[in-house]
Design goal:
Keywords: Nucleotide-binding. By secondary structure, the chain is an alpha/beta fold. The chain is 26% helix and 22% strand. It contains five helices and six strands. Bound molecules: guanosine-5'-diphosphate.
């Protein structure tokens, strides 16, 4: 099984807020081909369908997540669909984002190094309180693994990020990825979240 969630976030200064009842802008970042669209499709539609590319340019899908206490969180998920190359898009893309999900492919060290680049970009352009998750996707391809869990954990901890490995193909940890944000209690509830 893919490794589960790890800490890495400081709960000492946790505020009174969590995401129940809120609308949350979540941006996806990562190399082309790591599985960003497939992760979203798996979460939103419960399917794995690599042929249905829904994303053309920067677009978003929303998904309302029902919680056990019968409240909801509505994620507005932004997927760049490769447009992240255009620097001009960055300020608009990051604006108001409470959550950033940075995805790499566990079989591709290049995509891991690209993920580290995106984290730096987020640290530069994102809200200072943005909550970041590092996601190693394609965890079903264990035999082709080229990025170790330890390297990813070390990096995530150093940068105060959640870390999780997922598989959009098998659905492993996909819901868990989104659930982890719900219970995080120190969100910046400002900007476009209302
Ligand atoms: P994006 O460019 O980051 O949006 O990547 P896509 O979602 O288009 O996925 C790129 C390719 O990776 C697709 O052909 C998928 O079949 C494949 N893929 C995505 N997620 C997984 C996964 O979890 N496991 C495996 N084995 N393949 C995946």
């Amino acid at each position: 099984r893919a490794p589960g969630l790890l800490g890495g976030l400081n709960s000492e200064n946790a505020g009174p807020n969590d995401l129940r009842g809120f609308r949350v802008k979540l941006v996806l970042l990562g190399d082309s081909g790591v599985g960003k669209s497939c992760i979203v499709l798996r979460f939103v539609r419960g399917q794995f369908d690599p042929t249905s590319k829904v994303t053309v340019g920067a677009s978003f899908l929303s998904q309302t997540m029902a919680l056990e206490d019968s409240t909801t969180v509505k994620f507005e998920i932004w997927d760049t669909a490769g447009q992240e190359r255009y620097a001009a898009l960055a300020p608009l893309y990051y604006r108001g984002a409470a959550v950033a999900v940075v995805v790499y492919d566990i079989t591709s060290p290049e995509s891991f190094s690209k993920a580290r680049y995106w984290v730096k970009e987020l640290q530069k352009h994102g809200s200072p309180n943005i909550v970041m998750a590092l996601v190693g996707n394609k965890a079903d391809l264990q035999e082709n693994r080229e990025v170790s869990v330890q390297d990813a954990v070390d990096y995530a901890e150093k940068n105060g990020m959640f870390f999780i490995e997922t598989s959009a193909k098998t659905a492993d940890n996909i819901n868990k990825l989104f659930e982890c944000f719900v219970s995080h209690r120190d969100f910046p509830l400002d900007g476009e979240i209302q």
